């Protein structure tokens, strides 16, 4: 499964204090108690008990829990986590609860075996095969298509993958190999480039946000501020 020395399991408590960061590895979260509000690359979700989320490498994520939450957290460099795009199975939820208890009791075998077991229980049983022959992706045309759609509807990775006749997992691998970044990073940079170009031409923040696919002017302002750091 390609697990490495960096793979680390822990149980973390989250509170009302807002946090924001990114990592150069996958971060896997499974809810144990409470509700964690999470926003990854501008898209929000709630992680309650039994819910799960895989944050790809390089994706900035904001998090807080107004009433408090606990999650099992795995920091991992295993490439197999790129295949996980569904909610945890019942088996995964049960395993997560056991691993959380093992972490609390500092059982060493949880750190040794837990990461690979968590991935095996959650990931599809068979990898998605690569297309043969490999179809080239016209990244410039795909970017033009995305820019033309943002004002009307949200664009998901699945939409981009379908546009170039690939599965989301295949598209994610191609994006990282050919563009040197994750699919969300590619989309985020494309949105920011468009927003900056619109602002340079005199568009208001609200208009630039609408035309470049941001949920609100404040979301665009925050994204522009992060890029400028």
**Overall number of structural domains:** 2
- Count of DSSP helices? 8
Q: Indicate the mean pLDDT.
A: 86
What sort of overall outline do the alpha carbons produce when their principal axes are compared? globular
List segments where confidence is low: pLDDT < 50 over at least 5 consecutive residues: none
Q: Name the CATH homologous superfamily of the largest domain.
A: Jelly Rolls
Q: Order of strands across the widest beta sheet?
A: 1-8-3-6
- Annotated CATH architecture of the largest domain: Sandwich
Largest sheet: 4 strands, antiparallel
Strand content: 15-25%
Under CATH at level 1, the class of the largest domain stands as Mainly Beta
**Structural class estimated from helices and strands:** alpha+beta
* Count of DSSP strands: 8
Amount of helix: 40-55%
What's the order of the H and E elements?
A: EEEEEEEEHHHHHHHH
